[in-house]
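During the reporting period, we have paired protein sequences with backbone structure tokens. One record among many follows, to show the layout:
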Amino acid sequence: MIQINQDAQRAHPHQDAQLHILQHALAAVDPAALIGQRLEVNDHMLAMDDLRVSLLDRKIWIIAIGKASIPMAETVQSLLGADRVADAVAVIGKGTGTITNTLRVIEAGHPLPEGTVGADAVAHLSQRVGPGDLVLCLLSGGGSAMLASPPDGISSSELSHMTQLLLQSGATIDEVNTVRRHVSRLQGGQLMGLLSPASVITLVLSDVLGDRLESIASGPTVPDPTSFADAWDVIRRVGLLDRIPLSIRAHLLSGVKGAIADTLKPGNQAFDTAQTVLLGNNQTAVDALALAARSRGFVVHRCPRPLVGEARAVGIDLAKQARRLAASASTRWALIAGGETTVAVRGDGRGGRNQELALSAAIELEGIEGVSLASLATDGIDGITQAAGALVDGQTVALAQEQGMDPQDALARNDSHDLLDATADLLWTGPTHTNVADVVLVLGEPRA
């Protein structure tokens, strides 16, 4: 089970229960376990749910892309038997890979793309795939940056700059990836175009709310229902028309005018030999939170909708719900939620959406006893920091002020990380090698 490091943390209300419940949520979205529970290989047949695929007399290839790529690829390869696999490549974020004797591990940039080494390795493998072969494509969050493959005339640095602008604009991940697909040679179904007519089974661990397949790793093997016009509209609505590199602006405009081909759409014959299976998602983790909280004796209250919107606003709303529960509950309670908020960067500080949500909630919870709130990135990396999120309570604000720090000012400067580090409220897991967006767990007890 993935462990949350307690060494750098101060004591919080319900801390042991908080960490136990969060660790159970991470275990529920362990990619190796999710695949092992559903994928079977018997003799010359691969079976998964209602899917049956013959393995007889065909080459098998594995392409894994994203934060969970190594455990996903290792598990599939183990079930198949390494001798059956012609080649296996796993594209992972820089600095998060592990040594393996059976996979070619390629480290690529994330959250900002750095070069095209991941895309180049995938494209090279795809050229070796024959019409009767079977390809297992294993996708997880982070794959959009790791598979970056800008079209001719657009440099990797220009693509990285555009990505940074989009991530700081407050755009949703669906919106960001709509643009990414249209500035790519492999995403938006285009990898499937290279692999067809080979049979392709894509196993997906979703980090996208609503599980829109075209958004997960920007959909390299699935149809893309969006257009260049949609991508242009995203850039316009977030106010980046005059800020993106001129080469990308020209490329998108050419696409809008029909001068260059769009991504592959539903109905394209390339998808006749493609099948996709969803392994797990944010709801999987939230369900595990609820089960583990009940097992620890908490009455569970679930937020009815996924968490979306500006992180600081969501933090305030969750803290207000917690205050109401603390005032009215007659027994120990848990408020649980999942989702993916956004941060419109206005300052020059450090942080991530989970840390910003937690700091905003801590300000609202100031002085409240017996309540703690944890906001956790399930991939173990929140924003541009190495922290996974934060666990705060009614003492966070006072502790910050004792050290001469102003929580409101830190929030205004998007500097949640340094403040929460000073108050010993950060959560640390290291890379978890899974990713289903974020979870929030609030625990409390009735007031005396």
